[in-house]
Design a protein that fits this description.
15% helix, disordered C terminus, receptor, 263 residues, alpha/beta, Leucine-rich repeat, LRR (right-handed beta-alpha superhelix)
């Protein structure tokens, strides 16, 4: 009887080893070239999903270099950090994707409907890129997004309403950007207060020089007082200056500008 037990135990272990070996082979078959794949058991339901990390061996320059068609519906985490991507425009829907890391690439702008193929995304990291422009409709399909990292880019302004589609957002990180603090940036403070979105890492003003380094949350510009007479020229708001001493101030010209040759 004891020998039978040992025999059954040995057969079970052999079967387990065969299954593990088959799983390794399967992983090698479905995993795209220049990527690492790991299976992740779903919290609910019998299905399992993929955690995908690409570019460790050779830097990725275009998303098309990665064959995603056979595994698109299974990817739950996609790590593309530290590559050479200048664009991220998936041509197929990544329906299961919840976490996307695009940090440390070379993205320069976010276009309209940039992430329309990622309807279930919850975390998005686009930090440490070269982003200077964000279309007002870039995040239009990310209704489930909870965390967004835009820090360490070249963002100087954000159009009002840019984050309105992000109805589930809890944390926004935009620190270490050259943010222009003027009347056009007040909406961001109002929006974060109304939605209870936390501006993490204490974002600060990049300009004008008089406000450089000032935490955004301490910006004291008042819509009623400072911005009532502000005009818009080419999308940039100009605050009417209120000097302490009597001065001749030309609209659109700084008060410390040498204008004696104009008089």
């Amino acid at each position: 009887m004891y020998l039978n037990f040992l025999s059954m135990k040995t057969k079970f272990l052999n079967l387990l080893l065969v299954c593990c070996f088959c799983l390794v082979l399967a992983n090698e078959e479905f995993c795209p070239q220049n990527c690492e794949c790991k299976r992740s058991v779903a919290q609910k339901g019998p299905a399992d999903f993929l955690k995908l990390k690409c570019g460790d061996t050779e830097k990725i320059t275009e998303l098309d270099e990665i064959g995603l068609s056979n595994i698109a519906s299974e990817i739950i985490q996609f790590n593309l950090s530290n590559n050479l991507l200048t664009l991220f425009e998936p041509k197929i829907q990544l329906i299961a994707l919840q976490k996307l890391d695009l940090s440390r690439n070379q993205l320069k702008y976010l276009s309209k409907d940039q992430f329309s193929e990622l309807p279930n995304l919850r975390r998005l990291d686009i930090s440490q890129n070269l982003i200077s422009q964000i279309d007002i409709f870039s995040f239009s399909n990310l209704k489930k997004l909870e965390r967004l990292k835009l820090n360490l880019n070249q963002i100087s302004f954000l159009l009002e309403g840019t984050f309105d589609p992000l109805i589930s957002l809890k944390q926004l990180e935009i620190a270490n950007n050259p943010l222009i603090c003027d009347c056009g940036s007040l909406w961001l403070l109002d929006w974060s207060q109304k939605t209870s979105v936390k501006l993490v890492s204490n974002p600060k003003c990049g300009s004008p020089q008089s406000l450089k380094g000032l935490p955004l949350r301490k910006l004291k510009l008042s819509r009623d007082k400072d911005c009532t007479n502000a005009h818009k020229y080419g999308g940039a708001s100009i605050v009417v200056l209120k000097p302490f001493d009597k001065q001749i101030v030309f609209e659109g010209i700084p008060s410390n500008y040498n204008v004696k040759h104009l008089l």
